[in-house]
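Exercise: predict the structure of this protein bound to tetrahydrodeoxyuridine.
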Amino acid sequence: MYKDLIEVAKKARQNAYAPYSEFKVGAALKTKDGLIFEGCNIENSALSVTNCAERTAFFKAISEGETKFEAIAIVGGKGDELIQCPPCGACRQVMTEFCDKDFKIILFDGKDEDVHTLEELLPLGFKL
Ligand code: THU
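Solution:
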């Protein structure tokens, strides 16, 4: 169902900058208007400065004025092999800031896609 979004995430993954972990991640974020923003992980010698693929996609979209989101597809892995890559806690919190509880998070392990809602992945997320 989300085949096209997964393909965009795979393409975004090619730009990942991950010389330290060698774990490359790509994300494709779809707005409610149907626009798609790509993101990849961007690591740093000072490791804590690393930005995940999901947050790269969100920050690109938000900085371009987008605020309503429908779904994000995420792919990750070392080399050519993809494994399921659920978003980290920081990325889930960023999603909670900008998305409804029914925002869809699509995980692809190279074979099957798994669709989760934000409510499932971060119940009781903090929001002011
Ligand atoms: N990473 C992401 O980009 N997204 C995730 O959902 C999990 C982890 C990145 C951060 C780091 O560059 C590498 O994957 C290994 O943790």
